[in-house]
Amino acid sequence: MSDFPTHFGMYIAGHDETPVQYWSDATIPLNGRPPTNQPSSSPARVRSWQSRPYFCDTLARLCEDNLGGVVVQIEFLGGEERSACRVIWESGRVAIASFRTEHGCARLEAQVLHHLHPQAAPVPELFYFNGIVLVQESLQGDSLSHRLATADRPTCETLLSAALSSLVAIHQAAERAGLDQAVPLLGAEQYWIQRHIRQVHKMGEALKIPAPPLSTQDIHDILLPLKPRFVKWDARPGNAMVNTAGQVYWFDWENCGARNRLDDLVWLLCDESVPFCAETEQALLAEYLPQFADGASLEAAYRYACIAGVLHCAARLGLILYKKEGDEWWDMQEILAHDYIGVTLPQAQRLCYRAADWAQRESLVAALTPWFMQVAKHLETL
């Protein structure tokens, strides 16, 4: 296993060791029909599955008992080791079933979908949840990461604009649904923020390229979420679908919570799957900062976005190097097919170039600009 330093598990979880509180109320009523735990009276069907027959038999029976119809096919998305699969009925109905081992996260995701979808938020409809299996609408279209991989600059800007607009709509829907205070608080622990800041220096030590000192206390105070609001948090392009009309819908809500709305903008724009173009990114920041600022001044919002963006790039880069250490760079087509982390040289360097550009625009992290450029060059030797 790689020993390259990464804090990404703690980063995406939004906490270090303090347990977060999830919803713990009764089972969610779905479409006026509560899930049943009664054994089915219908005769058992003999079916032939291409893989994982015992799992597929149980899941098919569960879907039929609670949603009706006859399931004829189950397809594993991104490989049969993944927890999500596509369920296809004889009638042509299609849904996505997810098996969540983290029960708190599963209940959080189910509750969030249950409250957001009636508010016309761009999220899938929840069909069924029993505490561990979640069945939801199958969104039609292409993943945003796939679209961005082949997009020219104008198309890229259009796609990112649509994605940002959809996140704004979700924030507004969450406020109407009362979710701001209903979801767990993310990234508020002092150690969590300090570890997030220190990732830059831990990477520098591992690469033998020491990072310059930073004003940790000032950065901590800027990142401290004093006005927590509902956020997608894991708002990366791999968790979004683009339909034929160009609308963006978001799925995979197990990591959502309450923090600064600007974090969703940062997670999207600073992902390694997003082509780097300084002009495009600055144009999008100019257009969308007012909608994500949540009452903060544009100056304060821009400062937050620059600092959070630089640190997010460092977090993603640390995860990429952790996954790669000792091995070859990964195949891009396989990454897209399975929604893997972007362990390729162009994507790793893209994070460095973006972080360098964003850092030069904010005095508290400006010293990192030459450091990221040096790291980008060093990556070619790995």
TrEMBL record:
Pfam family, one: APH
Keyword Transferase included in the entry's annotation: yes
UniProt keyword annotation of Nucleotide-binding present: no
InterPro entries membership: Aminoglycoside_PTrfase, Kinase-like_dom_sf
Gene Ontology molecular function: transferase activity
Aminoglycoside phosphotransferase domain ranges (all copies): 76-289
Keywords: Transferase
Entry EC no(s): 2.7.1.-
SUPFAM superfamilies the UniProt entry points to: Protein kinase-like (PK-like) (SSF56112)
Name of the protein described by the UniProt record: Aminoglycoside phosphotransferase family protein
Upper lineage: Bacteria, Pseudomonadati, Pseudomonadota, Gammaproteobacteria, Thiotrichales
